[in-house]
TrEMBL record:
InterPro entries: NAD(P)-bd_dom_sf (IPR036291), SDR_fam (IPR002347)
Family statement: Belongs to the short-chain dehydrogenases/reductases (SDR) family.
UniProt KW keywords: Oxidoreductase
Protein name: Dehydrogenase
Length: 275
């Protein structure tokens, strides 16, 4: 009997690679998706050596509308079915909303929202029919906290809203598929050590943060895998971020926004002092 197979997008580094390792350690075969084929091949070799699992290499650019169907076709052409999906591929769109091109914003939405939903839409029916499936959508703790200008500078004005949609979508799809043994979870990490911050120009700021603010990709992947196996719809990794999200539910919105602005000023001052 063939092992179950999970598609992991954005698998070439960071949280995506950590999810690949987490699923492989549990005996899953992998379909590794990202633009950097060389990184995927290295990861596939590592997974074979460490865990004895097989990997399909699927180079794809998930900012393109055609990517979801191409990914699913590549898996089906290999004679495999998709039992799990980790929607993780992503990048920010730094800069003020009114100063960026709309084509850049639509590319961001295609990558961070539309193609997440498209992949889930393609694979969920088969999961429901077979009576087994696991879908993880990588969201962000920013979806659960008051917005801050840092989102604009490093990730984009649309970033918190896009990540919020993934949480609501995960909740709704999980309910829709209840009783079919198809679990859908959103994992909402805070700041995590990865190349994401290098790409977005946030490395200097992130490097000045207190250590308890920072998560590892492995912590995020472990939390996400545990959540989807247990059927928990939303998981916030890390004690600090659990505290922040719980506090945000108690405080009035204006107070929460004021706290975020004050914290942002402290972070900016700390980053400036470190230069």
């Amino acid at each position: 009997m063939a092992r179950r197979l999970v598609v992991v997008t954005g698998a070439s580094s960071g949280i995506g690679a950590a999810f690949a390792r987490q699923f492989a350690s549990k005996g899953w075969d992998l379909a590794l998706v990202a633009r950097r084929e060389d990184r995927l091949k290295e990861l596939a070799e590592e997974m074979k050596a460490r865990f004895g699992v097989d990997s399909l290499i699927v180079p794809a650019d998930l900012s393109k509308a055609s990517a979801p169907k191409e990914i699913v076709k590549a898996v089906e052409d290999a004679g495999r079915q998709i039992d799990g999906l980790v929607n993780n591929a992503g990048a920010g769109q730094p800069g003020h909303f009114i100063e960026t091109k709309w084509t850049d914003q639509t590319r961001f939405l295609q990558l961070m929202v539309t193609n997440y939903l498209a992949l889930a839409h393609l694979v969920a029916p088969g999961m429901a029919e077979r009576g087994f499936g696991r879908i993880i959508n990588v969201s962000s703790v920013s979806a659960l906290l008051p917005s801050a200008n840092a989102h604009t500078r490093f990730s984009g004005t649309l970033y918190p809203g896009a990540k919020s949609l993934l949480i609501k979508f995960s909740e709704a799809l999980h309910l829709e598929l209840s009783g079919k043994n198809v679990h859908v979870s959103a994992v909402a990490p805070g700041y995590t050590w990865s190349e994401f911050h290098d790409v977005n120009g946030a490395r200097a700021t992130v490097s000045q943060m207190p250590k308890f603010w920072m998560l590892t990709a492995e912590e995020v992947a472990t939390a996400g895998y545990d959540a989807v196996e247990r059927g928990i719809v939303l998981r916030v990794p890390g004690a600090w971020y659990k505290f922040l999200t719980a506090l945000s539910k108690i405080l009035p919105d204006p107070v929460g926004r004021a706290i975020m602005r004050a914290q942002e000023r402290r972070m900016a001052a700390r980053a400036g002092a470190g230069q």
